Amino acid sequence: MRASLWYQFYDSVKANPQGANETNPEYHFGLVMRDKSPKPSLLAFAAAAEALDGATFVRWVRFPDENLRGLLFDTPRGPMSILWSRADGYILNAGHEPDETFYPAPEPWVDPWPTKTTVRLPATGQAVRQIDCIGREKSIPVSGGGTVRVTLDGAPRVYYGLDLSGFGSAE
Asked: HSE on the CB side for 171, CA within 13 Å?
């Protein structure tokens, strides 16, 4: 991807800058709130842009568990994978009436995923870097056997330092 475009940088509308209207969803499309503080979506765009900068897609990763998903990339920082699980499906906030126009979505720093799948994966160094959807980084130590324990759920996470060469390509 060479460029990205979003509809409205700030919450509000062009005809009413810095305005508010809680009944009009268009006033909430921005990446930045009216007070100019970043929304979680801006953090997610920044995290994705940083991870994918210079990346080349290599392949899908196939796991023995059909609920687990993975993408493998070559990057200037080394091999990168994005892993997640679909054990809980794709939508966690579906408990609302179909005709409701507004309903709460979980905040990205709150973990709403009930199913956790722990897998042991081969690693290449002393630790694996894990980065969540809003850019928070964590180091996961590699065991003496050259593997790391990774817990996957519905939230995609970026990993540097995994060796997924033994996992087949998904068709």
From this structure: 0
152 sits in which H/E element: strand 147-152
Q: Quick check: 147 and 163 in contact, CB under 8 A? A: no
Taking only the tens place, the pLDDT of each residue in 73-108 is 999 999 999 999 999 988 777 777 777 766 667 777
Rounded Cα gap, residues 62 and 69, in angstroms: 7
Structure tokens belonging to residue 169: 């390509």
What is the DSSP secondary structure assignment for residue 64, as one 8-state letter? S
**Burial label, 3 (beta-carbon count in 10 A; 0-12, 13-18, 19+):** exposed
One-letter identity of residue 20: A
Contact present, 45 and 31 (Cβ < 8 Å)? yes
pTM above 0.90, yes or no: no
Q: How many CB atoms lie within 10 A of CB 13?
A: 17
What pLDDT, in 10s, does the model give residues 24-46? 878 888 888 888 888 888 898 89
